[in-house]
Amino acid sequence: MEARAKLLGHPIHPILVVFPLGLLSTSVGFDVAYWMTDTERWAEIAYWLIVIGLIGGVAAALFGLLDWLAIPPRTRAWRIGLLHGLGNIVVLSLFGVSWLLRAAAPAVPSALAIALSLAGVVLATLTGWLGGELVNRLGIGVHEGANVNAPSSLKQAHQP
Length: 160
What we know:
Number of strands: 2
Number of helices: 5
Strand order of the largest sheet: 1-2
Distance between the termini: 30 Å
Strand content: under 5%
């Protein structure tokens, strides 16, 4: 099944997801730089990367929802898409709380704010894999003849 929302023939959701993934994960890199050097400028950059990443994440989520609604219910693809979407809501929530904790003093984030961002990146790795499973294994969003009940790619990885 092909994506519902397209721009110049290409699905919009995968175009947009690179921005929040890149921005939010890079914010953690700047947090690490802040933590290692105690240079407040790195924390300020992390703060603004989170702001822009959250905006991009909401935009990507809206187009992802449109595509997910087109997947036949009670299929493996529908369940994976649901986990992918809900997981990414948690990712955005973790970064959102991190942002709120930083808002009063962006240059000096608390350990909790940094830990929440780190947890968000760890979870985004899993939800990104689920998104890859939807596209690469199941053909969702790219192939009209998508196999919405194909077995997990992990099953093939462990078979001789």
